[in-house]
């Protein structure tokens, strides 16, 4: 009876952990996300682009509105020039740009919605048309979002079109640089060609953890036919794995031939 109760308790422990409401909520959200992406992939290009633009714009608006609440409405503290003030165009443009960047939650929500929505929409269209996502597509999306942001936010001042082009180019260069930087650091390290056979042998024996020992002792593929128990001991490989490695070398016809 006691053993039966203990067995029941052991079986029920995983069930109690699986009832974690946070875990259930995360799993449910992931299922919804996968289902939504699957549905979206089956839609036509205009529908997919519209949905992606709208959802990304809403996310950007939420972020911008939150940031606007933290910075408050700084534009209210900026002095407003009287209508009859005779300001030169450069000063007026600077004042308009300051107002555009210092808006409250609604202004920042609009600005971020434009940036994120347009960027995601253009990226979606280019990815569907070109069948890939590369630095050119990333820069094109950034150019469009930067140019439209400049027009909508009022940063363009008295020359909206040239300033929109300048902002688009700036956004494109920044995002292109970030794209290349991220791709560089996300690429796996190139495989060391000197340890291809060694890595395969260790993996087949379940001893892949000792690859670092081989590299530390410079025991490359070319040294496999020459390996001895003493050499493996020098790189701090335990007796059991040493026996398995030496036995594997003796069983390999090509390595045994090179020994002779």
UniProtKB/TrEMBL annotation:
One of its GO terms (cellular component) is TIM22 mitochondrial import inner membrane insertion complex. Residues 198-251 form the SAM domain. The keyword Membrane applies. One of its GO terms (molecular function) is protein transmembrane transporter activity. One of its GO terms (biological process) is protein targeting to chloroplast. Keywords: Chloroplast, Membrane, Plastid, Plastid inner membrane, Protein transport, Transmembrane, Transmembrane helix, Transport. Pfam families: SAM_1, Tim17. InterPro entries: SAM, SAM/pointed_sf, TIM22. The keyword DNA-binding does not apply. It is found in: Plastid, Chloroplast inner membrane. It is a multi-pass membrane protein. SUPFAM superfamilies: SAM/Pointed domain. Probable component of a protein-conducting channel made of HP30-1, HP30-2 and HP20 that mediates the import of transit sequence-less proteins into the chloroplastic inner membrane. Interacts with CEQORH. Belongs to the Tim17/Tim22/Tim23 family. This is Chloroplastic import inner membrane translocase subunit HP30-2. It comes from Nicotiana tabacum (Common tobacco). The lineage of its organism: Eukaryota, Viridiplantae, Streptophyta, Embryophyta, Tracheophyta. The gene is LOC107761618.
């Amino acid at each position: 009876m006691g053993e039966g109760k203990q067995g029941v308790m052991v079986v029920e422990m995983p069930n109690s952990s699986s009832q974690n409401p946070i875990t259930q909520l995360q799993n449910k959200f992931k299922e919804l996300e996968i289902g939504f992406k699957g549905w979206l992939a089956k839609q036509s290009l205009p529908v997919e682009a519209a949905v992606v633009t709208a959802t990304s714009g809403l996310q950007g608006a939420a972020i911008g509105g939150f940031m606007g609440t933290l910075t408050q409405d700084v534009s209210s503290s900026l002095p407003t020039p009287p209508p009859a003030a005779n300001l030169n165009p450069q000063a007026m443009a600077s004042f308009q740009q300051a107002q555009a960047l210092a808006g409250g939650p609604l202004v920042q929500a609009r600005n971020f919605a434009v940036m994120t929505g347009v960027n995601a929409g253009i990226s979606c269209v280019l990815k569907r048309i070109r069948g890939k996502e590369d630095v050119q597509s990333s820069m094109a999306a950034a150019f469009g979002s930067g140019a439209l942001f400049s027009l909508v936010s009022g940063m363009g001042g008295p020359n909206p079109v040239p300033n929109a082009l300048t902002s688009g180019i700036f956004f494109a260069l920044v995002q292109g640089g970030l794209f290349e930087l991220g791709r560089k650091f996300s690429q796996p390290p190139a495989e060391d060609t000197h340890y291809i056979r060694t890595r395969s042998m260790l993996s087949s024996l379940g001893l892949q953890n000792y690859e670092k020992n081989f590299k530390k002792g410079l025991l490359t593929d070319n040294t496999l036919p020459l390996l001895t128990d003493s050499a493996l001991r020098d790189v701090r490989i335990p007796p059991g794995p040493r026996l398995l490695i030496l036995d594997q070398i003796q069983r390999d016809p090509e390595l045994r031939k090179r020994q002779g």
